[in-house]
């Protein structure tokens, strides 16, 4: 059972609101990731972190920002939500090394009206 | 660059049918290969993996063999069940500075009773 948590699971919010999607893992993993998953199922990496105080943008440009102040916590923030941000957001973590499994949280389904 | 190509879905099968989902990859060096499964409303979870050529990963009746000569990692199951209905993602990870998982686009499997 993966020990990686995301809250909220579902969020419906109006345009212009600031939101933070929470992600926490209790496995002590150094690497953490945020993916955006569109309705066509494809996963797009939008942010990643290789450790505390390390964050990088992923392959898909995103208006969101992330922070990594503690190993276990990797929140994603949208300063001003728009309908185009409506999507499923998946958080993941893994320990460094090519053979190691990547664990995923259950996801946050965001709807911006 | 490094990439993963998997067959498009949806794949619709009757219960107890044989399943094959094709996956081929392009990578420098010797990547590790993975199959992940995503059940409705959930995050991804590791189904099986193989870390070197000719390795066979297996789990829950699913199998995949790492074929370096054909750069393939096809997923197979001899007799599918309704409960196998899900989205299946092929992925690779390679060594190097970025050390990120690269996912295929996902294949939706629908098993009918």
What does this structure look like?
The complex is a heterodimer of chains A (113) and B (113). By secondary structure, chain A is mainly β. Chain A is 0% helix and 49% strand. Chain A is built from no helices and eleven strands. Chain A starts with a strand and ends with a strand. Chain B has 113 residues and is mainly β. Chain B has strands spanning 3-6, 11-14, 19-21, 23-26, 32-38, 44-50, 56-59, 62-65, 75-77, 86-93, 101-103, 107-112. In chain B, strands 2, 5, 6, 10, 11 and 12 form a six-stranded mixed sheet that branches. The chains are: A mainly beta (113), B mainly beta (113). At the A-B interface, strand 5 and strand 10 of A face strand 5, strand 6 and strand 10 of B.
Task: Tell me the layout of helices and strands.
The complex is a heterodimer of chains A (113) and B (113).
Chain A: E1 4-7, E2 10-13, E3 19-25, E4 31-37, E5 43-51, E6 54-57, E7 65-66, E8 76-78, E9 87-94, E10 103-104, E11 108-112
Parallel strand pairs in A: 2-11
Antiparallel strand pairs in A: 1-3, 3-8, 4-5, 4-9, 5-6, 7-8, 9-10, 9-11
Chain B: E1 3-6, E2 11-14, E3 19-21, E4 23-26, E5 32-38, E6 44-50, E7 56-59, E8 62-65, E9 75-77, E10 86-93, E11 101-103, E12 107-112
């Amino acid at each position: 059972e993966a020990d990686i948590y995301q809250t909220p699971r579902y969020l419906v919010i109006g345009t212009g609101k600031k939101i933070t999607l929470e992600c926490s893992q209790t496995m002590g993993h150094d690497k953490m990731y945020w993916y955006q998953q569109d309705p066509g199922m494809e996963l797009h990496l939008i942010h990643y972190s290789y450790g505390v105080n390390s964050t990088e943008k992923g392959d898909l440009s995103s208006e969101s920002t992330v922070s990594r102040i503690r190993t276990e916590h990797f929140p994603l923030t949208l300063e001003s939500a728009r309908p185009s941000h409506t999507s499923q957001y998946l958080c993941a973590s893994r320990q460094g090394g090519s053979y190691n499994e990547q664990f995923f949280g259950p996801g946050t389904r965001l709807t911006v009206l | 660059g490094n990439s993963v190509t998997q067959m498009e879905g949806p794949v619709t099968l009757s219960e107890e049918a044989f399943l094959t989902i094709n996956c081929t990859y392009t990578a420098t060096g010797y990547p590790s290969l993975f199959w992940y499964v995503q059940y409705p409303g959930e995050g991804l979870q590791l189904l099986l993996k193989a870390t070197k050529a000719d390795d066979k990963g297996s789990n829950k009746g699913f199998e995949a063999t790492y074929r370096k000569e054909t750069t393939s990692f096809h997923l197979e199951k001899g007799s599918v069940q309704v409960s196998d209905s899900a989205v299946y993602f092929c992925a690779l990870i390679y060594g190097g500075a970025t050390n990120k998982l690269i996912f295929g686009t996902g294949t939706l499997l629908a098993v009918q009773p």
